[in-house]
């Protein structure tokens, strides 16, 4: 473990920063943490990412699996620890908040073809596979107490059902919904809703968060036969991948492992065991699948160990 930690601390500044906070449990005001954060904010790739996302929302959101879309870049910036006071962030936050649905969720620019039940036109709208991610980013940026953010969270939380969160979206999307039965939960919606709720003390141990987490774990337990909205938890799901974009074992395990009340859950333990066995002799992890939109990052290749992926896996197994 010490060898891995030393490796992480000498890699990219954003990996060092997260490692110091999340694995070594160092305080924000420690000199080494401040230094790592400063280096992160000055890193050319992070600066480029901020510049790209400030052009919000960028391109039309045509698929929630589009890893290079500003939506996922926004979440990555939140994941590594940017906040509302960092350069460029106020401009970005202002652009996001310019588009809030009357019900509360913040909107994305989308276009759903008529043959899928949409209007066929570019429209600002929200779906339960994007709205939680925007709110999560705003919460992590330090806006959890903003009335507009609170309104969005309360509305989305109210959509929960006994078996978790369904496929849901704005009326502006027409009759569109994902390919599944209305009564089924949407695994991805539950994943990013748990991620959002776990970041808010008020909701962390709520019944709503428990229901959404249980929905994910039920999908894992019944993965041989239960594939709601065509989400599978088979071989592709189990390939190690970063950053946290879609529905895969690292993303699901990273989110669920933050919930202390799941520490002894055997289903989560099974996922962790699969991850653990993929470490090399030095405890490092190499991506088994990549998002080509992130090919310039350490996790955007499959040939050598990735510091960021190793940080994610190490934190999952330590929690």
What does this structure look like?
With 319 residues, this protein is mainly α. 46% of the residues lie in helices and 2% in strands. It has helices at 2-9, 13-23, 31-42, 44-54, 70-80, 89-97, 131-143, 147-157, 187-198, 201-204, 207-221, 249-256, 266-276, 307-318; strands at 108-110, 123-125. Helix 4 packs across helix 5, helix 7 (131-143) packs antiparallel against helix 8 (147-157) and helix 9 crosses helix 11. The radius of gyration is 19 Å and the shape is globular.
Any key phrases for this structure?
mainly alpha
Quick structural overview:
The protein is mainly alpha-helical. The chain has 14 helices and 2 strands.
- Order of SSEs: HHHHHHEEHHHHHHHH
**Biggest β-sheet: strands ordered side by side in the sheet:** 1-2
- The separation of the N and C termini measures 14 Å
Over the alpha carbons, how many angstroms does the gyration radius reach?
A: 19 Å
> By helix and strand content, what is the structural category?
mainly alpha
């Amino acid at each position: 473990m010490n060898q891995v930690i030393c490796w992480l601390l000498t890699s990219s500044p954003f990996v060092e920063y997260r490692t110091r906070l999340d694995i070594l449990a160092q305080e924000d005001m420690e000199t080494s943490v401040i230094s790592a954060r400063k280096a992160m904010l000055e890193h050319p790739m992070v600066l480029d990412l901020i510049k790209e996302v400030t052009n919000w929302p960028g391109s039309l959101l045509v698929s929630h699996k589009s890893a290079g879309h500003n939506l996922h870049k926004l979440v990555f910036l939140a994941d590594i620890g940017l906040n509302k006071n960092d350069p460029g962030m106020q401009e970005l936050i202002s652009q996001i908040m310019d588009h809030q649905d009357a019900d509360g969720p913040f909107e994305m620019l989308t276009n759903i073809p008529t043959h899928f039940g949409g209007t066929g036109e570019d429209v600002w709208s929200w779906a339960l596979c994007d709205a939680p991610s925007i709110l999560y980013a705003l919460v992590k940026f330090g806006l959890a107490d903003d009335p507009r953010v609170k309104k969005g969270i309360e509305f989305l939380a109210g959509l929960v059902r006994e078996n978790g969160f369904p496929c849901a979206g704005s009326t502006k999307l027409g009759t569109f919904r994902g390919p599944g039965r209305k009564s089924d939960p949407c695994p991805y919606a539950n994943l990013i809703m748990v991620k959002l709720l776990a970041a808010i003390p008020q909701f962390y141990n709520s019944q709503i968060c428990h229901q959404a987490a249980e929905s994910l774990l039920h999908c894992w337990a019944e993965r041989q036969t239960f594939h709601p909205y065509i989400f599978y938890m088979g071989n592709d799901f189990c390939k190690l991948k970063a950053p946290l974009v879609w529905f895969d074992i690292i993303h699901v395990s990273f989110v669920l492992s933050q919930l202390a009340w799941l520490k002894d859950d055997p289903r989560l333990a099974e996922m962790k065991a699969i991850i653990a066995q993929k470490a090399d002799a030095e405890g490092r992890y190499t991506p088994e699948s990549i998002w080509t939109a992130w090919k310039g990052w350490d996790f955007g290749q499959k040939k050598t160990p990735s510091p960021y992926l190793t940080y994610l896996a190490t934190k999952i197994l330590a929690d």
